[in-house]
Amino acid sequence: MKILHLAAECYPAAKAGGLGDVVGALPKYLVKAGHQVRVMIPAYRLPWMAQQEFEHRWSGLVRLGAVKVPVHLVQLKESTLGFDFWMVDVPGLFDRPGIYADPQSGYGYADETERYLVFQQAILQYLRETGDHPDLIHCHDHHTGLVPFMLKHCPEYRSLQHIPSVFTIHNGQYHGAFSWSKAWMLPWYDADANGLLDWAGLINPLACAIKCCWKLSTVSPGYLLELLQSSNGLEWLMRNELPKSSGILNGIDTEVWNPFTDPLITARMEEDIARFKQENKMVLAQRFNIRDNMPLITFIGRLVAEKGADLLPGAIERFLHEGGQASFVVLGTGDPSLKDAFMQMKHHFVSWFDTSLEYNETLSHQLYAGSDFLVMPSRVEPCGLNQLYAFRYGTVPIVRSTGGLADSVKDISTPEGNGIRFDHFNTEALSASFHRAVALYHHPGAMDQLRERNMQLDHSWENAAQNYLNLYSSIAH
Ligand code: ADP
Question: Among residues 2, 152, 236, 438, which one has the fewest Cβ atoms lying within 10 Å of its Cβ?
């Protein structure tokens, strides 16, 4: 099958979170299963991209109202990623140092609508003009959500209407909605298709994708059920489209996330897990002001409401005041007021709490390797990859029971237990989980046994890729 993936991120070219991980891994495993896979993302000006060589493939003009925007499609020369990698270069729109936001100021780019409208159309125009048709287009998140609509309802792309589309929701919090006053930016579309674009009085790319795609998937079965109950106003729509929907739990790229070979960690795993953990923890103790003689509990992630990072200051403070004996590290970037709160904690709880308020891929690997516990107090978690990376590096996850976390983490009080779970989103419940973690850490043999078992858990992409292939073959050949 010839499969085309369209997304805003793809690791290692561009990653802001789990979307990048998935789009950088799933295609690789689809290729291994014998398929021809191409990924297209925008050509941002990011460090990885500057170090590669690209070949020009096609140039054209995308109409944005009265303006014609020049676009260029380029392909990575050496296929080092395990799949064909293409970028859409749009000077003036994507040639910036950030993916969604300016890295200096932290502010999101205000022309998101224009950027992704041009991106999506550049690809459809290329397919139409060159006749280079895939057997299926797999779109990820709202940035590519108008493609299923354009394929079906825009006269310009009529020759592509037979191509089946799959749409995956990685994050249903963001809809990419924009005002009808910007409708002039859209390509011509059938007059009776207005209703497909609209949701609650706005043009809503996420809602439109849910309506128009041939098959819909979410990144975990639990998240699909949650979206039926709570999806920022799309509940009714999700229920309506349930017959074409399925939840497929993400895998992890076991070639990138491999404690035996990971070039981003200092001490690689050999035979002795305890030694692997201890040596990497010592590296962290040099980097952070923490106590190396007690359990280390780490948070890695975007500092936003979904991830529940705002629960950490209160819960950590409570735990330490109750006499809890553990050190904490936070690696993340996002909400400025949360960043301030963590900076303040660093000064209040010297040697108990430290933080690095940045996006740092290398440091994240070192933290998975050297921490004892990884905390994820998420309000919402579509799948969550951090807990799966934690398993792989012998780090025990502490998670709130929601979405993909509830699908992948079982509490240690059960026979298949692999982590610590709590239900209620409050500081008391999280602090109690920290106390449970410390007790587990000191329980003779229990921690070693759990680490060993967790490191053998199979969350590889092979299984998940097969689930996607089953989905594809239900609509394409
Ligand atoms: P989401 O996509 O909602 O942010 P996921 O759990 O699916 O959450 O994926 C998060 C990915 O982003 C993981 O690979 C995690 O290690 C990475 N990540 C998040 N924040 C940072 C950061 N500040 N530095 C490095 N990696 C990060």
Answer: 236
